[in-house]
C-alpha cells in the first residue's frame, strides 16, 4: 500500500530483420499512479544495453503523454508497433557517436543542466532528495543558495540528466502552504547543453550557500561557466 505495485511483462516483437525480440518489461506503479509516472525497466537478450535504455526513454516519453490516465496497456501496444523504429534510430545515433568520437574526447556524452527553483518550503527534506537523486544517477554539480535564488547545476550522462528532470517534475518533493506534500511546479530549465572543452567537470555533488552575488559568480567562473552565469543569473535578481 505504501510502495505501489511492481509487475513484469514479457512480449515478443518482430524487429527489423523479422527476427523475434523478447522484451522483458518491469513496471513499478507508485501509490499515486497514474498521476505519477511509473518506473520502467527494459531488458532483452537480443538488444544491447544502450538499445534497452533507448526503449525505456521512449516509453517514458510516451508515458508523459498519458499522465493521469491508465497507460501500461497503451505503452505495451506502442512499443510493439514502434520497436523497430526505436532500434533503427538508436543504431543511427550509435553510428553518429562512433564517427564523432574519432575526433573528440571521451567526454562526448556529458551534458549540463541548469535549473532555477522558486522556493523550498521543506528545505531539509528537499535537499536530501536532490542529493539522493544526484547520487543514484551519478550526476555531479551544485545545489546553490544565494538570498532567494535557488539553482541546481548538474553534469552527467544525457539520459541520466533527462531522468533527473522527470523525477524533479513528477515526485512530491516539497510541501504546499498547508503543509501537504506536493510536486515541484515552480521550476525553470534555464539551460541544457553539452559540456564543452572549456568547462570544468565537477567531481562531486555539493550543496553550497553564498552570501553575495560575487561569491556565486566565482563558483561559475572557477568552473569555466561565466557565460552561463552572465546570461541566466543576473535576470533572476530583477
Give a verbal description of the structure.
Pfam families: RWD. It is found in: Cytoplasm; Nucleus. One of its GO terms (biological process) is positive regulation of hypoxia-inducible factor-1alpha signaling pathway. Residues 1-86 form the RWD domain. Keywords: Cytoplasm, Nucleus. The protein has 238 residues and is of the alpha+beta class. It is built from 6 helices and 10 strands; from the N terminus they run E-E-E-H-H-E-H-E-E-H-E-E-E-E-H-H. The strands form 3 sheets. A 5-stranded mixed beta sheet has the order 9-4-6-5-10. Strand 5 and strand 6 form a beta hairpin. Helix 1 (49-65) packs across helix 2. The protein is globular, with a radius of gyration of 20 Å. The termini are far apart. 21% of the residues are buried. The model is unreliable at 94-108 (pLDDT under 50).
Question: Overall 3D geometry?
Answer: globular
Strand content: 25-35%
Tally of helical runs? 6
The secondary-structure class comes to: alpha+beta
Largest sheet: 5 strands, mixed
C-alpha Rg, in Å?
A: 20 Å
List low-confidence stretches: 94-108
Q: Give the end-to-end Cα distance, rounded to a whole number of Å.
A: 46 Å
> In what order do the strands lie side by side in the largest sheet?
9-4-6-5-10
Order of helices and strands: EEEHHEHEEHEEEEHH
The percentage helix is: 25-40%
Tally of strands: 10
Q: How confident is the prediction overall: mean pLDDT?
A: 82
Protein name: RWD domain-containing protein 3
Keywords: Cytoplasm, Nucleus
Subcellular location: Cytoplasm; Nucleus
Domain RWD: 1-86
